[in-house]
Design a protein that fits this description.
The protein is mainly α. About 55% of the residues lie in helices and about 0% in strands.
Amino acid sequence: IRECAHLARALSRERVRDELTKTLLSEKPETAAEIIALGLLAPTVPEANPDLAELPALPAELPLRLALLMRRLRDCGAVSDPVTTLRALKYPRAVCESAGIGARACCGASRFGIKSAIARHGYATGRCAAACEGALAEYDDVIGSGECCTLSQLAVGGADLLAAGIQPGRTVGKTLDALLCHVIGNAEDNTRDTLLKLI
């Protein structure tokens, strides 16, 4: 197979993408490591030996498995920018962003790290980042708790800050961002009265 691997370069990127997707969503997604080691994804993904032993433990959801694949390729130096690599493989934009950014984001397995990833990148990307950390159960627990992870969940909004005397403009956004950061680490403080006292 290795001797004929160069022939795969003549395949369209869409075909390569489809074959990779089938492998990742199969019962043995870790065999993607063999495909990469044989150079069948070159030149988009160079020959490498990523450790994909954790892939079968993830739900058979493409963004999650792509994120872990890209994280392991990044770990072994085969890929520098997961988003660019996924775009080159012709994955849809939403998948490129959630899986690619999720592969780059380091959230750890802590509630704080997971909530911070959601706050910075959104729920889909936060879930991909958690998958890369082996922390999907923790992610689900955060979501189930209803704890504040986004600006829309803050107990105050821009109108509240303006009424409290904050000057219109960028200061409002910066203040809301600061309050969100505070609440991510102090969930019990997400009340209107407490947050207005903090500004």
